[in-house]
Amino acid sequence: xxxxxTALLPLCFLLLLALSPRPSLAQCTLCKTNVxxxxxxxxGYDISGLNKGILYMMAAPYILGGTVAFFWYxxxxxxxxxxxxxx
Length: 87
Fold this sequence. Notes:
Blueprint lengths: L1 H18 L9 H13 L6 H33 L7
């Protein structure tokens, strides 16, 4: 067991290192185009709408996943409770 763990630990570390996200300076094409267009149109450009849109898109999967997890947890908990005894 200890030999297997010792052999798998570096392999798991290398796998996590290979799959880790790389830092990037790029944006998606649409976001970059909107920011550049608003920069050229006015001197004081406002990108708060763009930031709010990014936060909205980021929050949606978490809300959906949390809802699914809640109903799944509730369903599993109901199945584990013993049925009331009938007299």
